[in-house]
Specification:
With 1234 residues, this protein is of the alpha+beta class. It is 40% helix and 8% strand. The strands form seven sheets. Strands 1, 2, 3, 15, 16, 17, 18 and 19 form an eight-stranded mixed beta sheet that branches.
């Protein structure tokens, strides 16, 4: 039902129940969001506002985010006018015109297009207006003579604005209005309006604003001051109502100024509308010129203007309010145009935060009487009428607004940050008041047997903080005080800790948050305290995030002063580091600890019936419980605890670099340039208090607590992702952080490393590492995690007991997904998992192959009783790496052949008799090893060409027309057989595990293909063959190689090199293949390069085994029946003694993971990248800022600041900074109406 707006009746709430009759003096419709409005005599009211109001928007062509005049002020010059025509098919048109000097031709679009026309226009599904996602039809021209064709509207507007944009009409999907605290049950929809469907302003309010401005302009005594007001201009200047962009302008003889601020409902005939939008302050854009009005106040707002600055701690109700209303663009403009105002705001918020800590009213719970329309003219300490202060909300808003400002300050390459945050100011007041805190503190007992050295109590020689001074009359820098206050508020009773912990008037109590390390008492909190903890940690994370605005090349050279302030114990004393470390650690570990029944998830093998009674006897861990009982604060708090903890543990820059020299950790204030092999960089506990105390943990109960917590989190994730009831368990959002923390523990704490092996939990840890590798190997967004996991596996494999525990069964506690289950023990699962990582990733994970193969080499001396499948997998890996297509494609690939040969050699030297299946697989593949011994560049290139030609021939036969179908199939099969016969080995299906295990000698006709490069085009796959055909050795018509037993090393070397015959020399065709079709990234293999690595391959050991055993195995095949051949050969290989013919075994020296500058930077970028991603939604903490540490591929969402909040930085936005008038209700919320 639609009703013409003739008059309006309004209830005036709060001043009595009488009704006041008003009249409408103007109706304004804005057909296109942020463009000029059009005045109409009458219009229809719909549930989404006035008919045709803001039903069209201009959006960015790439991001589909709405563009507003806040960003492009020229939009105010676009003039859409509604022309009604009852004879027109679409009820009329919207005529869109531009300034005459723009050279843009006016055009028209249908006023009310029907469904048929709308369906012909493309539909954009992701139109973004602030935080909402909408749909919109991209408007096309219906004029056949349009200059630019069907894209006239978007093309013309793009040319005018100088930006690629699209003109869209609101689609059919409803866009719900977000409920407000005053109207929590508000249920309505809008088109493209910012906040509400209807915007109302009164002429009495406009007259009052004009009166105040003119009074201030003519006031000679300066009693009524408006900062920055151009008095000469505003003595006579009229103020246009259109600047406020209202829909309805009203007037009444008895209407008071700002009455509309108190209305909760307007009534139009029989229709009513609740919570209409309100108009705030003076927009600074001149609607005639679309330029900032220079006469609008632009001077600085003094620190003493409490009534103005207090709005920033009273206005917002949630973090999303701040992120929605204050954009990085506005802060950036403030830094450039009004830095004094921004500095004042930072100082005001920081000072308020410091004051609240000592304020006896803080913290206090929010009161029910608090209203979002309460008067905010009260100063910091006063209370007006029924208004009640909420100090807790004030503290949170200080964190929220500062957290919005800091990322933009960090990205700016200027002196603003140093001047505001690190410059010491002279003071007559003791700057250290409040820092001498006493009380019982948790102490990590010293373990003299494992002391890696305490961090120095004094700054490292040659280092200094920004503006470091020794003058006692200079107060601490603002940044130091902010960090100190943030730590205090982490342990504030009633704010982040229960009020019952407060002793007398001392509200700061450094009590560890949760039971665990350092505390046997479970501090029972609530969701509100957890939410406050999360907000404090989020702000601390933002303070530490200056790292992401440092380029990778400078990361280890430039100090992050905020992190340095925390990690050095001459800045942050031990009594603060320990509660912080233990609180963060316990919060993270309790999210998955088996030992904490109240919070522990089901174990990986748990069933639906295995429920745990939580607090108050309430049943927890029910299926789908997370959908019924939402806990937003809990997971966020755990993720933030992990993020802050990892960022502190990882910090390696400038004076915080840890240097390993001669195997011992030393402290250096500068980044070294190692000139010898015994000097390298590695994360140790020397220069970082958090690393130091983490490394000092040694009590078995503490180590077991951490290990159980890590395994609990990982088990919960596996259980949630592979549950019989899909979606019944909540996915763990912090598995990456869990693995990275595990890595830190393994690297830093020797006792923990030993505990993993001694507690018989290595199988659990290794199983989870491998399962997560396999689960995420094909997901590019998780390749950073997979890379970290491979390095962790290498770190563990370097320990002496690692290989010994691989003979244990796969732990039943770990629920391995069925598709990764393999027969045998942990060693078989280890080998098979690495094979799957290499064989099924098409060469996309080449960067982690070395770490995985090195881990195999470290464990090889202890690998025993490998099953048929895992034995075949090892030989298949060798065949894949030694295939010419892979081997010649990259300069680094020969080292993979070296490592896999080392794996085979170590097993032959130390566990030959325990691995007959592997020995048998080597003998079946003897030709692959022999071909490598006589490999030359020309032979490799010929093999590549031959395989390519055979494949092309097979494809031509397959696609050929005519002829007998059966013959075609026969020819195709023959061609494929030819490929296999001439390859170093036949190819075995990666997924046909059962056929391999049950019939190890059967032939497989499927193919295994690995691309030699990620950049290979789709129609040029490079086949990497695996093992030779698993058939009876008696059928192999291959001559035995010459025996090498008893010959000299020199002769052996000659045999490996082989003879390069005349036909091996290059011809022009082979040179072309080598230059164009083999190498990648510009690499061209040469014979000299082949000779350089081939001579160093440890191939002798395998060739000796083949030459010694192959003839004897053939004799067994000839003398035994076919059914008994395999068992006879395996029995023989178990009993045969070959040590006497083998060369001397090399010493067992495991290859440990070696840190480098590149790996340190990579790990930092991985940690901060994960923090960054988690901060993008829903708050967008670092969005639209110039991050330098890593690349960001998301499209930033443009958000503007309201005119009210824009007053934050008056000169930056040009908005007036009028001190609140006592007769005006200044608690009205900012309008985001464009």
């Amino acid at each position: 039902m639609f009703t013409a707006l003739k008059d309006i009746l309004s209830w005036l709430l709060g001043f009595g129940a009488e009704q006041t009759t008003l009249r409408i003096t103007k109706l304004l419709v804005f057909p296109i969001k942020s463009c000029k409005g059009t005045s109409v005599q009458e219009t229809r009211y719909t549930p989404e506002g006035l008919e045709n109001d803001r039903t069209i928007a201009i959006i960015d062509a790439k991001s589909h985010s709405a563009v507003t005049a806040r960003e492009l002020s020229k939009m105010l010059l676009i003039h859409p006018q509604i022309r009604y025509d009852s004879t027109d098919l679409y009820g009329g048109t919207i005529d869109i015109s531009f300034p005459q000097d723009s050279d843009c031709q006016a055009f028209s679009i249908p006023l009310n297009p029907d469904d048929e026309l709308l369906e012909s226009w493309p539909l954009a599904e992701d139109v973004r207006v602030w935080s909402s996602r909408n749909d919109g039809h991209i408007i096309r021209s219906i004029d056949p003579d349009a200059i630019f064709g069907p894209d006239t509207p978007s093309e013309t507007i793009s040319n005018f604005l100088g930006r690629n944009v699209l003109l869209v009409r609101k689609g059919p999907r409803p866009r719900a209005v977000v409920a407000t605290p005053a109207f929590p049950d508000l249920k309505t929809t809008t088109a493209f309006q910012d906040g509400y469907p209807l915007l109302i302003a009164s002429e009495s309010s406009l007259r009052d604003i004009t009166r105040h401005i003119r009074t201030a302009a003519t006031d000679e005594d300066g009693k009524l001051k408006i900062y920055g007001l151009n008095k000469e201009v505003w003595k006579d200047k009229e103020f246009a109502m259109e600047r406020f962009r209202p829909n309805i302008v009203i007037n009444g003889d008895d209407a008071l100024p700002y009455d509309e601020e108190r209305w909760e409902e307007i009534k139009v005939g029989e229709l009513s509308s609740g919570d209409a939008g309100k108009i705030l302050l003076i927009p600074n854009m001149d609607i005639e010129t679309a330029e900032p009005d220079k006469s609008v106040p632009s001077q600085n707002i003094p620190f003493t203007d409490d009534a103005y600055w207090s709005q920033y701690v009273l206005l917002f109700d949630s973090p999303s309010d701040v992120s929605s209303l204050i954009s990085p663009h506005d802060i950036r403009r403030a830094i450039d145009e009004a830095p004094e105002n921004l500095e004042t705001l930072i100082t005001v918020l920081s000072t308020r935060l410091f004051t609240l800590i000592t304020d006896h009213t803080f913290p206090s719970p929010p009161t029910s009487s608090f209203s979002p329309v309460a008067n905010i003219t009260a100063t910091w300490g006063s209370v007006s009428g029924t208004e009640r202060r909420d100090p807790t909300k004030e503290a949170l808003n200080c964190f929220r607004v500062l957290g919005r400002i800091l990322p933009v300050v960090f990205e700016a390459d200027n002196s603003f940050e140093n001047d505001v945050f690190w410059k010491r100011k002279r003071t007559n007041v003791d700057a250290d008041i409040g820092t001498d805190r006493t009380g019982p503190q948790f102490v990590i007992e010293e373990d003299d047997s494992d002391d890696e050295g305490r961090p120095s109590r004094q700054p490292a020689a040659g280092t200094a903080r920004p503006n470091a001074v020794t003058n006692e009359q200079l107060e601490k820098p603002l940044a130091e005080k902010l960090l100190s206050s943030t730590i205090d508020l982490m342990f504030c009773c009633g704010f982040t800790l229960p009020s019952k912990l407060q002793v007398d008037h001392h509200k700061i109590n450094y009590t560890i948050w949760e039971r665990g390390i350092g505390s046997s008492v479970d501090v029972v909190g609530n969701s509100q305290l957890d939410s406050n903890k999360a907000e404090v940690l989020r702000f601390l994370e933002i303070l530490l995030s200056k790292t992401i605005y440092t380029s990778p090349n400078s990361l280890l050279l430039i100090s992050n002063p905020y992190v340095s302030q925390l990690v050095h114990d001459h800045h942050t004393p031990r009594r603060l580091v320990l509660p912080m470390l233990c609180s963060l650690l316990n919060t993270a570990m309790n999210s998955g600890s088996y030992s904490n029944a109240a919070r522990a998830p089901l174990t990986a093998m748990g069933s639906v019936g295995s429920m745990v009674n939580g607090v108050g006897g309430m049943v927890t861990n029910l299926p789908y419980q997370h959908l019924i009982m939402r806990d937003d604060a809990g997971p966020a708090l755990v993720s933030l605890s992990f993020g802050v903890l990892l960022s502190l543990l990882d910090y390696q820059a400038a004076e915080a670099r840890d240097i390993i020299s001669g195997g011992e950790a030393v402290t250096s204030p500068i980044v070294p340039s190692p000139s010898t092999s015994d000097v390298s960089a590695a994360p140790t506990a020397v220069t970082n208090s958090f690393r130091y105390f983490l490394a000092k943990l040694h009590r078995p109960s503490d180590l077991d607590y951490i290990l159980n917590g890590i395994l609990g989190i990982l088990g919960h994730h596996i259980s949630a992702t592979h549950n019989m009831l899909p979606g019944s368990r909540k996915i763990v959002p912090h598995t990456l952080e869990t693995f990275l923390f595990l890595w830190k523990m393994i690297e830093l704490n020797k006792k923990f490393r030993s505990h993993v092996f001694e507690s018989d939990r290595l199988g659990d840890v290794l199983s989870y590492l491998l399962v997560f590798c396999l689960e995420h190997k094909e997901k590019p967004q998780h390749h950073g995690l997979v890379r970290a996991l491979s390095y962790i596996v290498q770190c563990l494999s370097a320990e002496t007991d690692f290989g010994n525990q691989l003979s244990q069964p796969i732990p039943s506690r770990v629920s391995i997904p069925s598709r990764w289950v393999t027969q045998g023990d942990l060693g078989d699962f280890f080998v098979t998992s690495i094979y799957w990582m290499v064989a099924t990733t098409s060469g996309q994970l080449n960067f982690l192959y070395p770490a995985l193969i090195i881990a195999l080499a470290n464990a090889a001396p202890s690998l025993t009783n490998l099953q048929v499948t895992s034995s075949n997998r090892l030989v298949q890996l060798f065949a894949s790496f030694s295939n010419p297509s892979f081997l010649l494609s990259d300069e680094s690939h020969p080292r993979l052949v070296f490592f896999i040969l080392e794996v085979l050699n170590q097993i032959i030297f130390h566990q030959f008799s325990s691995n007959p299946n592997l020995a048998y697989a080597i003998l079946r593949s003897h030709k692959t090893f022999e071909n490598l011994g006589t490999f030359t560049l020309s032979k490799g290139l010929r093999e590549i060409r031959r395989v390519k030609e055979a494949k092309e021939e097979a494809e031509r036969i397959q696609a050929g027309k005519g002829g007998d179908k059966g013959k075609g199939v026969e020819r195709t099969t023959s061609a494929r057989s030819s490929i296999r016969a001439h390859s170093p080995g036949s190819r075995v299906s990666l997924t046909d595990d059962q056929s391999i295990e049950k019939a190890p000698l059967s032939r497989s006709t499927s193919e295994f293909v690995i691309r030699s490069s990620q950049d290979e085009v789709a129609d040029r796959p490079i086949p990497i063959p695996e093992t030779p055909t698993e058939r009876s050795l008696s059928s192999l018509q291959i001559a035995s190689p010459p025996s090498v037993s008893g010959i000299s090393e020199k002769a052996r070397g000659k045999m490996k090199a082989g003879q390069i015959h005349g036909d091996d020399e290059f011809d022009p065709e082979l040179e072309r293949i080598a230059a164009v079709g083999v190498g990648r990234n510009g690499f061209v293999p040469t014979q000299e390069w082949v000779t350089s690595w081939q001579e160093s391959l440890p191939l002798d050991t395998v060739l000796v085994v083949i030459s010694e055993l192959l003839p004897k195995v053939r004799e067994l095949q000839a003398s035994s029946s076919q059914s008994k051949t395999t068992s006879a050969i395996l029995d023989y290989l178990k009993m045969v003694e070959i040590k006497t013919v083998l060369p001397s075994a090399p010493p067992l020296i495991p290859r440990r993971f070696q840190w480098s500058d590149a790996s340190l930077v990579w790990l930092s970028s991985l940690i901060w990248g994960e923090i960054f991603v988690k901060g993008t939604s829903p708050l967008g903490i670092w969005n639209s800022t110039n991050v330098k540490l890593f690349g960001v591929r998301h499209t930033p969402q443009t958000r503007g600041v309201s005119n009210f909040v824009g007053g934050l930085l008056s000169s930056a936005t040009g908005s007036p900074a009028t001190p609140p008038d006592p007769r005006v209700n200044h608690s009205r919320r900012p309008s985001r109406q464009s």
